[in-house]
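Hi all, long-time lurker, first post. I run a small reading group and we've been trying to get comfortable going from sequence to structure in the token notation. Rather than ask abstract questions, I figured I'd post a concrete chain and ask someone more experienced to write out its structure so we can walk through it together at our next meeting. Sequence below, copied exactly:
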Amino acid sequence: LIFDHQTITYNQLLIQVQKLAFVLINDKNIHPGDIICQYMDRSIEMIVGIMGIMMAGATYAPLNTYDPLDRVLSCINQVDSKLVLVNQMSHSNLTSLKVPILNVSEVIESSNYLNDMEIEQLSQVIITSESISHIVFTSGSTGIPKAVQIRHRNFMDYMKTHIIEANDIVLQFTSCSFD
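-- Answer (accepted) --
Happy to help. Here is the structure in token form:
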């Protein structure tokens, strides 16, 4: 995985994701279906956060670091987020909001490694195709962002439609990340 001048192997990524998922489940009492917002700019830590949330069976809800803090707080409250993941860069922006936060940077940098039993615990998390994968916030035609839930099956169906064969033609006016 490469981002700017940072590089980690897939094995290192897996180890970091497992550490985060373990902390979410055991230290933060996260259960399948709980909603966790993530407030950070694009980075390797952002990828670790997304994957860690999903490995814990929780629902990922991204927050835009460029949004005003009142909109960010509105999004957090709307989905009743149990926790907000931040990193070193975004941590200080949310301390004034009085929301529960976890600094992914600290989890990743910890020297704790999971043993086989702890890794086995992660494989016991139940996620179905009907589980909510992530939540996106629309721009809100009323000026208030609206949370839209995406199930794992919806996401997989979307990805399947974008597998293009040699002679297929796909017309799409938006980026693949548009809600």
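A couple of things your group might point at:
The radius of gyration is 17 Å.
DSSP finds seven helices and eight strands in the chain.
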